[in-house]
Request: fold
Amino acid sequence: MPTPPYLKQFPDENGYFGKFGGSFVPESIAKAMQEINEAYDLIAQNSDFIAELRKIRETFQGRPTPIYFAHNLTRELGGAGIYLKREDLNHTGAHKLNHCMGEALLAKFMGKKKLIAETGAGQHGVALATAAAYFGLECEIHMGEVDIAKEHPNVVRMKILGAKVVSVSAGAKTLKEAVDSAFEAYLKDPVNSIYAIGSVVGPHPFPKMVRDFQAVVGFEAREQFMKMTGELPDIVTACVGGGSNAMGIFSGFIDDAVELVGVEPLGRGSGLGEHAASLSFGSEGVMHGFNSIMLKDSKGEPAAVHSVASGLDYPSVGPEHAYLHSIGRTKVAAISDEEAIKAFFALSKKEGIIPAIESSHALAYALKIAPELKGKKILVNLSGRGDKDIDFVVEKYGYGEAF
Ligand SMILES: *Cc1c(COP(=O)(O)O)cnc(C)c1O
Reply:
């Protein structure tokens, strides 16, 4: 499919989507980001790079992932047809490998030897460690001590894959401190290493680059959906943490008359600290090197957030989402912990697919609106599989009921 005009137009050369995005970083980081930006601009046009990425997607990742018509849920709800883009079937079980393979291939082309990143729940760390093994690159993942204890299986996976896991014991010992620690390590050797950001966030060029690598999800989905049903979906929906899986699927439909809905985590409710719904409740501000919509505490600092899905637990959102929402091109919905868990069990018991709790947010939104939309079609990006979540879910919620 030819690149939709919107994607060529946004962001501008300085990484802005309207007033959102940009690069708000110290001089030392700015230089490194500039170098990555120039390399990416060059490489994105290079037919060897494109051919290599295509081969990786087919033979290593198992792309294209299918679209599945959720026939049992659709029949039971009696409204809109519900379709799932199966990113849970992508190698390593989620969409994250789409941009990790792209970033690692870029690192290889730039002659880098080492991939550095932070990870919260460990999903980005595992995907990046996988990419590093594929390309024969070193991999160093920074992770808070608290998260290391909580996310033991992912720590084990990263180590089996050959990555070095750096335990971070500063401050609250979670994601924010891990980001600081990873950046520090990166700045010690920006010549041989590259910082690989895990979503459409951070300073330019990462929001653009990660979106471009994820756009394959939307391009595939558009073609598959047309072939399957003879028309475009009425609504496309995805969960939004940083926003990479959502920008991936939205990219395929951005210039079409299709409603795009980002689903944020409402957690335990609308009070500050109880959710991580940045677009729904946040305000403009700069964090982690970019201008976007964020959740702030009374001092203007990034607020504490909560979601049952650790992958959605972020007090800001990718700048492109802030822009698309501000101009009315996308809509935003919020789904609570409880609604997400209900959808988790519904898909497991009615269709035989155990979804990630993150993806269950998007699914829950589709299940909520479907009964009123007979004759319409909803496409949900099922961003990942739920194997990582089963122990937590069963301990907290038991084995569940379908509805
Ligand atoms: C990390 C993760 C997310 C959230 O990241 P986005 O950048 O918002 O897509 C969503 N789903 C799954 C399965 C994840 O692992």
Notes: The chain has a mean pLDDT of 96. The first strand starts at residue 16 and ends at 17. The radius of gyration is 20 Å.
